[in-house]
């Protein structure tokens, strides 16, 4: 299992369109991917899970992945969250 703490740099946070793109990206990996925010750990492949967390700009999250492409999944998803739109 790989884990990485990341600060969300997306201007709008992980809401609506960015959340949908994040979930779409997570679903492109065969690994199980999770995101933890303020003690809540959810499946990163679930749009409802991501939206329920209401993660804003500047907030810290922890990404977890386990599977054959775990390293790449964590790297791509963390880069996405750190993009300044």
From TrEMBL:
Residues 1-85 form the HPr domain. Pfam families: PTS-HPr. SUPFAM superfamilies: HPr-like (SSF55594). This is HPr family phosphocarrier protein.
């Amino acid at each position: 299992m790989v884990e990485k703490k990341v600060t969300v740099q997306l201007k709008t946070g992980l809401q609506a369109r960015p959340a949908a793109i994040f979930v779409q990206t997570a679903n492109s990996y065969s690994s199980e991917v999770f995101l933890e925010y303020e003690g809540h750990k959810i499946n990163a492949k679930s749009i409802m899970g991501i939206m329920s967390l209401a993660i804003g700009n500047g907030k810290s999250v922890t990404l977890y992945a386990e599977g054959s492409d775990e390293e790449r999944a964590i790297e791509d998803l963390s880069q996405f969250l750190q993009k300044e739109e």
